[in-house]
Amino acid sequence: MEKPGHHILSYNSLLGVLVALLSLTALSVWITNFNFGTLSVGVALLVAAIKGATVLTYFMHLKFESRILKLMVGGVFLLFALVIIITFIDYLLR
Amino acid sequence: MAETTIQQHQGEHEAGKLGMWIFLFTELFLFGGLFLVYAVLRATYSADFHRGAEELDAFVGTLNTVILLISSMTVAMSITAIRRKESGKALLLLVTTILLAGLFMVNKYFEWSHKLELKIYPGSPVLENMERGELLFFGLYYMTTGLHALHVLIGMILLTITAAKVRSKQITSESYLLLENGALYWHLVDLIWIFLFPLLYLVT
């Protein structure tokens, strides 16, 4: 087992990640042809979240980092989502 | 003795990276506040936001997304290169990243000058005569993309310093914390754009 942070991503796998990200971008542009009504922001955010997670996991190398760093980043993103969602729900239900 | 020095160095590297992540968290919450403003205003003025988003050029937005994604890959590749002791390649990849960042700013320049020609800028009479929601949409557009563009510029400076240190062999396969942190910063710039792009340009 390698030590955390010691994995070197190959050029080919990084290229693969880029292809995946570009495909998701194409998807996010393509789905604007459909009308999801009030859900359209949600759908756009879902695709963006998948892209964001891909960037964090591979480009930012999180997959190969120590458990403590993964927990920290996961925790902060959870907190971030909660702050946004709870404040927004509070606004909507006023 | 040598063993302890290596371990010490490893510890410093990890600590330095952790510090960078903590800084990135603060950046996340800086933009997070603006995302929240977007959510609330969009809920209040959905029709005006719809009209505002249609004024934006989705093609330029998509092009800039592609540019940033490619630049994110090249900067990640430069870490692979430096760790494989290919510093020439690492430098080339870093310079490519900086050039792509420059291209992003050039697009931004044309996008904004077009908006200025249409007299859509904060405080302009054209904007003040628009619906309240549209005024707020463009205010948010300039604020978020402006703050993001500032981050692109800072990223370019940071990566230029990094490239210079790769060139002068101050960054090597043994010691590349600055390159790793510079790359993390650049990925964050990309990450924020991943969310700004659909919210401003695509959702109409």
From TrEMBL, chain A:
Q: Would the keyword Hydrolase turn up in this protein's UniProt record?
A: no
Matching InterPro entries, A to Z?
Caa3_sub_IV, Cyt_c_oxidase_su4_prok
Main location class: membrane
Which of UniProt's keywords are assigned here?
Answer: Cell membrane, Membrane, Transmembrane, Transmembrane helix
Q: Where are the transmembrane segments?
A: 12-31, 37-59, 71-93
Q: Where does this one sit in the cell? A: Cell membrane
From the Swiss-Prot or TrEMBL record, give the protein name: Cytochrome-c oxidase
UniProtKB/TrEMBL annotation, chain B:
A Pfam match: COX3
The GO terms this record gives for MF are:
cytochrome-c oxidase activity
Q: Which BP terms does GO give this entry? A: aerobic electron transport chain
One GO cellular-component annotation of the UniProt record comes to:
plasma membrane
Q: Where is the Heme-copper oxidase subunit III family profile domain?
A: 17-204
Question: For this UniProt entry, which segments traverse the membrane?
Answer: 21-41, 61-79, 91-110, 140-163, 184-203
Q: Which SUPFAM superfamilies match?
A: Cytochrome c oxidase subunit III-like
**UniProt KW keywords:** Membrane, Transmembrane, Transmembrane helix
Q: What is its subcellular localisation?
A: Cell membrane; Membrane
What membrane topology term does the record carry?
Multi-pass membrane protein
* PANTHER family the UniProt entry points to: CYTOCHROME C OXIDASE SUBUNIT III, NITRIC OXIDE REDUCTASE SUBUNIT E
Q: Which family is this protein grouped under? A: Belongs to the cytochrome c oxidase subunit 3 family.
Indicate what this protein is called per its UniProt record. Cytochrome C oxidase subunit III
